[in-house]
Amino acid sequence: MKTTPIFVGVIAFALTLQTQAQSVIDSLKVQQLEEVFLSDSKTNLQSQYSGKIVKKITQKQLEPMQGLNLTNIIDRIVGIELSGSKSLTGQNISYKVRGGRSKDVVVLADGVVVSDPSAIDGEFDFRFLKSDQIESIEILRGASSTLYGSGASTAVINITLKAAQKNKINLNVNSTLGTNQTASNQNNNINDFREHVNLNGTLNKFHYNLNFGHQYSDGISALASDNESDAFGLLNKRFELGYKIDNSVSIKGFIQDDNLTTSIDDTSDLLSDYKYYSDQFRTGLHADYVFNNGFVKMNYAYAETERLSESSFGNTSYESISSFSDIYANYDLEKLSVVAGFNLLNNKSKYEGGYESFQIIDPYVNAVYKSPFGLNINAGLRLNNHSEYGSNLIYSFNPSFNLSLSNNQSIKWLASYSTAYIAPTLDQLFGPWGSNLNLDPEDSQTIEAGFVYDINSSKYNLDFSLVYFSRLVTDFIDYDFNSGYFNSDSDLKTEGVEFDSTFSLGSKFSVLSNFTYINIKEGSALRIPDWKLNTSLVYNISDTFSTTLAYQYNASRDDVYFENFMSVPVEMNAYSLFDLHLIKSFKNNTVKIYLAALNILNESYQEIVTYNAPGRNYRLGVTLSL
Q1: Handedness of CA 360, 123, 60, 49 (dihedral sign)
Q2: What is the C-alpha separation between 177 and 374, in angstroms, rounded?
Q3: Shortest CA distance to 77 belongs to which of 63, 98, 104, 51?
Q4: Residues 241-266, buried b or exposed e (16+ Cβ, 10 A)?
Q5: Cα 445 to Cα 469: distance, rounded to the nearest angstrom
Q6: pLDDT tens-digit map of 173-202
Q7: Using CA atoms, how far apart are residues 210 and 236, in angstroms rounded to an integer?
Q8: CB–CB of 123/95 below 8 Å?
């Protein structure tokens, strides 16, 4: 791909506008956006200097979504498709971003990579995280492997958990109950129960944070052709303890244990009752040292996962152990901010012959240049050292240019070129279903170009972004039911457009919309809609009463089912979903009551072939904060 002219053109265009430098500087000083992103550079980078489209979901936006699974919330973000999130609660979740799969997305919780090396794509099970625990979510689309490693070839989902408050004792209790039913069986029985308790506080230099969560759902059969109810159960326990040595140095450690049980029937020719158990234990340590012009951070985590699948065909067990270390430092000058770090990942999974493992050791460096005339450049290098596949250099180059159109209008042009290196997962190399020791790693290149437009007036605010992307993957790892995993002779070629907008009239009324179009020219588009639309209307009736009407349209998509021990392709119908959310606060926000009506038009659909999906359902909940 001839990408050099694109970036030369961007820089040349910026330089020709240098005569407008003072105008741009004055405008940026006036606008000084409050939004700050962490994911784009691993530093607190103001959005005006960011050359990527980072979507941030704040606590204010999460609050009206009480009663929803985390996967439902993330699935509404532009460019993101979480397959299984719109099915019954116990359905397995896979990530589909820009034509990629779960292995192409890195998920972080408080700066630590979370994963399961024994899973097919090594992916983290999102069902282990509850929205009640989360302070904010940042989603960085596009290849970000220079900062986050080989898995970040399509996106990074960076989740920040709620921190302890300054008071000595703070208690937060949340309880939700609701229905769990299909469109054809609207019995309105209460079959969904969710509870979350949080105790936190600060005692001198110590802080503590204790979380306990429970969820139980029943009433729906996993298979559309079956009437037997399949239950889902989840327990979350997490404890965090921190110590602030002084204003410069702080440390904290955590322990988390999650237990999941679900029943999802098999779809093979011989119908089989299927039960699934998953237990994950995680512990870790965070350390921070802050100085005048920068900081040093250390994140470490250790995880053990045990999974068991029980069916009439027999039992299959999975065990994995992983450890993750990331140490990096930032030095910030007036016009240049540099991050340099060292990443160590050790994945191990148990198979019939014993444990198999691989290690990845990655030094990396990333720099952000902030010019005085609106030009910003974000560039990085990473040397990926894989114990099985040797060393590979990956890099990214991301220029952007801020241009003031008036005192309250600005436009930011951006472009990027990024490479990524994706090694096969342990399951693809050693797993029980079609593994192949002769697999080669995938190589990918991603091009992005687009703009962000902002209007901030006394009456209304409008911002929208439009991004075109093109992604090429060579040595793409594909799967065939008969032969297992193999490197495809054809490249995976994907292109698309992502549009995202927010319009608000003061603090009363907002409209949030996004549109995703994806065209997979060559390769598999399984369970990926050609296009997807999300729109939310938010109306704050008063300071204590808010309503949200959310709409989602999913276009037709390809799927596959098994018949006579052969895979049969099928095209799934498009469908639309409307949700209504109400939240009312009492007694200085110490008590909040929320009501949700999901799929209010009772749309009958299948997200995944042969499996059931929810019809109209209701959630009623209360939150108490003391």
Answers
A1: positive
A2: 51
A3: 98
A4: ebebeeeeebebebebbbbbbbbbbb
A5: 11
A6: 999 999 999 999 999 999 999 999 999 999
A7: 11
A8: yes
Q: Which residue type occupies 536? A: S
Distances (CA, A) of 248 to 240, 244, 291, 292, 330: 20, 8, 7, 9, 14
| Distance in Å from the first CA to the final CA of the chain | 58
Cβ-Cβ contacts under 8 Å for 395 (sequence gap 6 or more) = 146, 379, 380, 381, 382, 418, 419
Residues 6+ positions from 322 with CB-CB distance below 8 Å: 115, 116, 117, 302, 303, 305, 345, 346, 347, 348
Q: Where are the beta strands (DSSP E) in 204-248?
A: 206-217, 232-244
State the pLDDT confidence band at 37, using cuts at 50, 70 and 90: low
3-state DSSP of 322-388: EEEEEEEEEEECCCEEEEEEEEEEEEEEEECCEEEEEEEEEEEEEEEEECCCCEEEEEEEEEEEECC
- Token pair for 547: 């309503």
Average pLDDT, integer, range 598-605:
96
Res 14: pLDDT: 38
Closest CA to 215 of 188, 195, 237, 240: 195
Which residues 6+ apart lie within 8 Å of 37 measured at CB? Answer: 44, 45, 46, 47, 50, 54, 56, 138
Beta bridge partners of 276: 262, 309
Q: What share of the chain is helix, strand, coil (3-state, %, to 5)?
A: 10, 60, 30
AA identity, residue 44: N
Length in residues, the chain: 626
Tell me how far apart the alpha carbons of residues 174 and 623 are, in angstroms, rounded to a whole number. Answer: 4
How far is 494 from 473, CA to CA, in rounded Å?
9
Task: Please tell me the distance from the alpha carbon of residue 307 to that of residue 278, in angstroms, as a whole number.
Answer: 4
What are residue 430's phi and psi, to 5 degrees?
-130, -5
Return the amino acid letter for 112: V
> Taking the complete model, does pTM exceed 0.85, yes or no?
yes
Indicate the helix (H) or strand (E) that contains 141.
Answer: strand 134-141
Q: What SS3 state is found at 29?
A: helix
Read off the pLDDT of residues 478-535 as tens digits, 9 standing for 90 and up: 888 778 999 999 899 999 999 999 999 988 999 999 999 999 887 677 899 999 999 9
Instruction: Please state, rounded to an integer, the average pLDDT across all residues of the chain.
Output: 88
| Alpha carbon distance 571, 564 (integer Å) | 19
Structure-token pair, residue 166: 């300054």
Q: Token digits for 569?
A: 């392709």
The rounded distance, in Å, linking the Cα atoms of 537 and 513 is 9
Which residue from 362, 398, 364 is spatially nearest to 379, judged by alpha carbons? 398
Q: Which token pair is 354?
A: 């014993």
Tell me if 227 sits within 8 A of 207, measured CB to CB.
no
Residue 470 three-state SS? strand
Quick: pLDDT tens for 549-596.
999 999 999 998 877 767 788 999 999 999 999 999 998 889 999 999
Distance CA 105, CA 355 (A): 25
Distance CA 96, CA 94 (A): 7
Torsion angles phi and psi, residue 3, rounded to 5: -100, -20
- The model's pLDDT over 458-474, given as tens digits with 9 standing for 90+, comes to 889 999 999 999 999 99
Q: How far apart (Å, rounded) are the C-alpha atoms in residues 111 and 345?
A: 14
CA distance 339 to 266: 48
Backbone angles phi, psi at 30, to 5 degrees: -70, -45
